[in-house]
């Protein structure tokens, strides 16, 4: 019985020690930096999404790939994966490019949401996980924000004032 207790205690201590090796919660902030259309067909669109990764911890963050989901105006829009590797030094930021796929239904949900809001504001939410060196669980992230679109009166006009 004593040997069992000792092994159980050692195992619990090892697990507790490993839990402390992962990244500090909220040590990573991820925002959408750019979205470009790569290809579009009738049924799906392929985008290249650039994410800015801010490392707010005292250790370098070594990303070995990841996945994410993007919502626009509260509706699923697309998802993506990447095997790109990135090392973000302590208290620094870096960019990672991820291919995102959206179906025609995602595009229809986007158009419907913009019509409901008169196209003036786009709310977005991004969530996902990066696989990282030194952490079994990786780093989860979730960010949201809004983009206010210019009204038609605020858009630049041609050289002749039209």
Structure overview:
- There is one protein chain.
- The chain has helices at residues 2-19, 104-116; strands spanning 28-40, 44-55, 61-72, 75-82, 86-88, 92-103, 121-132, 135-148.
- It is α+β, with helices and mostly antiparallel strands.
- It has one domain (24-148): Immunoglobulin-like, CATH 2.60.40.1820.
- Strands 1, 2, 3, 4, 5, 6, 7 and 8 form an eight-stranded antiparallel β-sheet that branches.
- Strand 1 and strand 2 form a beta hairpin.
- The protein is elongated and about 65 Å long.
- The N and C termini lie far apart (88 Å).
Question: Based on CA inertia axes, which overall geometry fits?
Answer: elongated
Distance between the termini: 88 Å
Which structural class best describes the helix and strand composition? alpha+beta
**Taking Cα atoms only, what radius of gyration do you get, to the nearest Å?**
21 Å
- What about the largest sheet? 8 strands, antiparallel
List low-pLDDT spans: 16-24
Rounded average pLDDT: 80
Strand segment count: 8
CATH architecture: Sandwich
Number of separate helices: 2
């Amino acid at each position: 019985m004593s040997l069992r207790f000792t092994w159980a205690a050692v195992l619990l201590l090892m697990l507790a020690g490993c839990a402390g090796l992962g990244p500090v919660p909220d040590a990573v902030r991820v925002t959408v930096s750019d979205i470009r259309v790569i290809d579009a067909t009738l049924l799906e669109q392929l985008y290249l999404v650039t994410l800015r990764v801010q490392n707010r911890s005292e250790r370098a963050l070594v990303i070995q790939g990841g996945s994410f989901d993007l919502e626009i105006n509260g509706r699923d829009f697309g998802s993506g994966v990447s095997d790109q590797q990135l090392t973000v030094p302590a208290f620094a930021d870096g960019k990672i490019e991820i291919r995102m796929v959206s179906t025609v239904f995602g595009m229809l949900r986007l158009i419907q949401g913009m019509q409901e809001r008169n196209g003036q504001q786009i709310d977005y939410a991004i969530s996902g996980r990066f696989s990282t060196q030194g952490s079994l669980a990786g780093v989860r992230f979730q960010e949201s924000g809004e983009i206010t679109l210019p009204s038609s009166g605020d858009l630049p006009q041609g050289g002749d004032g039209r």
